[in-house]
Amino acid sequence: MTKFRLESADAVSETLMIPLHARALEQQQPEPLVRDPIAAEIVERIDYPWHRIRVNRHDLAAMMVRLREVDRMARAFLAEHPAATVVHIGCGLDARFQRLDNGQVRWFDLDLPEVIALRRHVLPESERDRYLGCSVFDPQWMDAVDAAGAGPFLFLAEAVLTYFDESQVKGLVIGLQRRFPGAEVVTDGATPLTVRLDNWHLAFTGSAARIRWGLTDPRDVEAWSPGIRLLESFYYFEQPEPRLGLLRWWRHVPAISRGSGIHHYRLT
Ligand SMILES: C[S@@+](CC[C@H](N)C(=O)[O-])C[C@H]1O[C@@H](n2cnc3c(N)ncnc32)[C@H](O)[C@@H]1O
Known about the structure:
Elements: H1 11-14, H2 17-26, H3 37-44, H4 57-80, E1 85-89, H5 96-100, E2 106-111, H6 113-122, E3 129-133, H7 140-148, E4 153-157, H8 166-179, E5 183-190, H9 192-204, E6 228-235, H10 254-257, E7 260-267
Parallel strand pairs: 1-2, 1-4, 2-3, 4-5
Antiparallel strand pairs: 5-7, 6-7
Helix pairs in contact: 2-3, 2-4
Bound molecules: S-adenosylmethionine.
């Protein structure tokens, strides 16, 4: 079988291998938190030193809870708007379209060109799942989405915006609000303390990537522009997912239990 590589990727792009590896590992659990049979097939087709990725069972559970919750928020949106357009920002090699496809949604998977080049080899593009190989900060992709998509719009950004400065994230969110009024955005966010802890963790896993955007309170985003509303927040450690094991004790420490979450906004 021909194996493919991620060519000339930067440290942030290479981080996509961690959740991909985790999704594949999860399928070996008796009751996977997220069912994603394609992940293991993709891992098989990529030439990568997988043994270098260190994911302990609690990290695995936390990553799967994040994945499950972003999927849940997207499914709820699609239940209300089945023919919506979804843009999956920093999609990596996640088969989210395949997990959530309702037969009507129009989907765009967006990532840097080298990632999209690899994605095309292992997960082919289709009529309703178009690929956009460019930076999310290059506004040209919005033209393609505007021309081909029909509202309402949902933008999903899992484990991507945190790698950038707040000024970049703010510019993007305000750009989306102007271009796609009424759109909704789901992203994960971490407080400055959790950013520091996550960076130690990234260093431990051997990644050179570092997280930068610290969000003290998810409502702070509302102050970026009138019309931005926080609809929902999900916090990992406040939820009793048994597989989080000892990590669940963090729910007694507010600075940590609310340190990392998934936030859902509407941009009107
Ligand atoms: C930690 S990975 C997450 C991948 C995917 N969301 C998942 O959970 O499997 C971060 C992703 O963000 C992408 N990324 C980094 N910078 C980007 C940019 N400027 N524009 C679009 N995507 C970017 C990387 O290439 C990588 O695929």
